[in-house]
Request: fold
Amino acid sequence: MRYNNIFSILFVVFAFPLLGFTQEPDTPAVYNFEQLEQAFTKEDKPAVIFLHTNWCRYCKGMSEGTFGDSDLIKLINKDFYYVPFDAESKETIIFRNVQFGYESTGVNTGIHQLAKELLSHSEDKSYPVLLIINKDLEILYQYSGFLDQKEVTDILNNLI
Reply:
């Protein structure tokens, strides 16, 4: 009886993944800008850039809710690169041979230069921001504000 229980546990642990019963990822595959640059050379598909901040509750809602939807995750992982980026990050990033860093705009406030560059063509600079760009860095879509899973799915489906 004891061996049957051990065999059952081993079967579940090892056989289910082999039979295709794997758990779906709970987040999209994440790229940073350096990885995105390399990825563009391997496969030509658009990038979904999610600009957010740590203090923005709508950003958190999109990060956990919208981008936590399993159908949206599958769509993003199949047809897009996903780059979540803190618009107030203090890290230095080299993208397309240009160095971007944090730019202070006052006491305890600022914006990352890369986020500023991505938002330079928009009058609305409120967070969260959904940007979709191609490998030539052309903006295919840009929206400032909260979007739910269905809205993002519809937007992405219209681009593929």
About this structure: The chain has a mean pLDDT of 87. Helices lie at 2-18, 33-42, 57-64, 70-79, 113-118, 149-159. Strands lie at 47-52, 81-86, 93-95, 98-100, 102-106, 109-112, 129-133, 139-144. DSSP finds six helices and eight strands in the chain.
